[in-house]
Design brief:
Elements: H1 3-15, H2 24-33, E1 40-48, E2 52-53, E3 56-57, E4 62-71, E5 74-83, E6 88-99, E7 102-113, E8 132-140, E9 147-156, E10 159-161, E11 167-170, E12 174-184, E13 188-198, E14 210-224, E15 229-239, E16 244-254
Antiparallel strand pairs: 1-4, 1-16, 2-3, 4-5, 5-6, 6-7, 7-8, 8-9, 9-12, 10-11, 12-13, 13-14, 14-15, 15-16
Length: 255
């Protein structure tokens, strides 16, 4: 592991010994409860050993910056994943609306790998050479129960294989994820996550209508300080469809 990565992680862990305070998310919730919605901005940066996404590893060690603008029930967020070896990058723009226990997300995801034949072009939205993916998500995230249910569907960018090496019709690849979580006092929050591919999508190389592709055991701890928080995560992931497994960890700082 690069020495600079070790220094960053050690610094974050040592910094966590400071006094706890209110996080940005709690400040937003408090403002909403007081009946005075306000425009707020928060951000963060994470260092992760692997970018584990729906039962697959998109890249190894990477940096993930993000920032989010909140107003009433709306959130506009920009975040990305940048591998330390410069072989992978992803930039996401997401609009989210929360109504009670329901979250609706509209996401534009731009991905580029160093092995792609076409040069990188963020403004290329064409079907054959563009690297944008548009996804809609509907998530049930009750505040009173330790359970989440999330549905994701690609509406653009993910196409079925066509003739002569061309891209065919949109695949509408969909992903269903269920999560149950439990808080172990002040130690951490543990989660059990199961995700499945729905319809013939890219998750199964367009071969199966249904497949379990993501089984995860996750431990999460957020160290809350006066003006920032330090999220720490460890995940063990198994993909029953590909028969692959992964173990990843991340540490970050949010302000």
């Amino acid at each position: 592991m690069n020495n600079s990565l070790i220094y960053v992680i050690v610094f974050l862990l040592c910094f966590g010994a400071a006094a706890e305070g209110m996080t940005a998310a709690e400040e937003i919730a408090a403002a909403e409860e007081s009946g005075k919605p306000q425009l707020t901005l928060d951000g963060g940066i994470y260092l992760s050993s692997a970018y584990l996404w729906r039962g697959a590893a998109n890249c190894g060690f990477h940096v993930q910056p993000d920032m989010a603008l909140h107003y009433k029930g709306f959130t506009f967020e920009a975040y990305g994943y940048f591998s330390l070896d410069n072989t992978f990058k992803e930039i996401d723009l997401e609009l989210q609306y929360r109504y009670k226990d329901l979250d609706i997300h509209l996401l534009d995801c731009f991905c580029y790998c160093s092995g792609y034949k076409n040069p990188e072009n963020y403004f290329d939205w064409s079907k054959e050479t563009g690297n944008h993916f548009v996804e809609l998500a509907v998530c049930y995230v009750p505040q009173k129960y330790p359970f989440y249910a999330k549905w994701f569907t690609f509406f653009y960018g993910d196409f079925l294989p066509g003739k002569n090496g061309k891209k065919g019709a949109p695949s509408f690849s969909s992903y269903l994820e269920l999560e149950a979580h439990h808080t172990f006092g002040r130690i951490c929050t543990g989660s059990v996550i199961v995700g499945s591919s729905i319809l013939k999508g890219a998750y199964t190389s367009y071969t199966k209508d249904f497949a379990v592709i993501h089984c995860e055991l996750r431990a999460f701890r957020e160290i809350r300080l006066q003006h920032v928080s330090i999220p720490l995560t460890v995940s063990f992931v198994v993909n029953p469809y590909s028969k692959l497994s992964y173990l990843g960890a991340s540490a970050g700082i949010r302000f």
